[in-house]
Amino acid sequence: MRELDGSIAGGQFVRSALALSVLRNEPIRIENVRGDRSTPGLRHQHLAVLETMVAICDAEVAGAELGSETVEFDPALEGSASDDPDRGRLPGGTYATDIGTAGSVTLLFEALLPLATILDAPLSITATGGTDVKWSPPIDYVRHVKLPLAGRYGLVATCEADRRGFYPEGGGRATLRLAPSTLDPIDLTERGPIEDVRLYSTEAASLADRDVAHRQAEGALERLDRDGETDRSESDGAPDAIGERCETTAESRCPGSAIVIRVDHGTGVAGFSALGERGKPAERVGEDAADAANRWLDGTAPVDRHVADQLLVLLAVAGGRVRVPAVTDHVDASCDLLRSFGIEPSLEDDGETTIVSIESPIDG
For the whole prediction, is pTM greater than 0.90? Predict the structure, then answer.
């Protein structure tokens, strides 16, 4: 059983460790779960990920309870005649989970995405919880940024949101569908010319009379224009106008809003988001997302800072190179976790960005 120490890491460490355990078909023991958080141990969303992994793999588990600071997980997958039997395969199927709070549905989905590479049949997971909550990507980021980017390298996945869930009640419902996938090596070291900019602004139905979704979009557009988006078109191919603008009024148990800006360029996709808050003007929410987009446009990395660490498990499967804007704590912790599994990422720092590369991936 592989021993892992989560004393200086958070929930991302737990989710990635479970995914790697399944991909490698290796039992793991995680001690000091979320040890650097003010409330260590498994919270609702982490427990939901663990329970979903157990259900999908028919795994053996110990410590699957709220507050647990030690978890043992053994996927014990059966092999497939056409693949390395030591790795094992997943049969697919249809599953449902209820996080029970406004815990993040999108982080649950993030943990499951790499499993597409060992599926023998399609897998569908419907999750109830928070679709647009703090400290996690909004559901539109997953649908319009993360999945299209991963799809360029062979991941076959779709995501549908039936109902939005905002803090504090949650109650959102979304479905992730994965198909058996074979990933190509990831090559994201250079940013191509800017090709398109898209806006996805959402409001709960209870906020429709205040035109929150429209005002968020207007705030984002004003800030993008004011900070020179049109001027960039002369030098790097950025469009003079927004390619797609989608304003949505969604059913939800509680008020809330979100906005996602997607930027397409020659080699990939980047995304930037912000969530509505009580007392915060909707225009300012849009401006916050635009500010993040403008900072990225002023740099050279082909991916945004949030997708950077989310790509590392996929990079461990497929191999390749990714230039990230910064080595965040999440990136650093993810690299350490990969090393714990015998997967050696290398980092090349050029002073402004860092290239993370893996030459010997799991599938290699």
Answer: yes
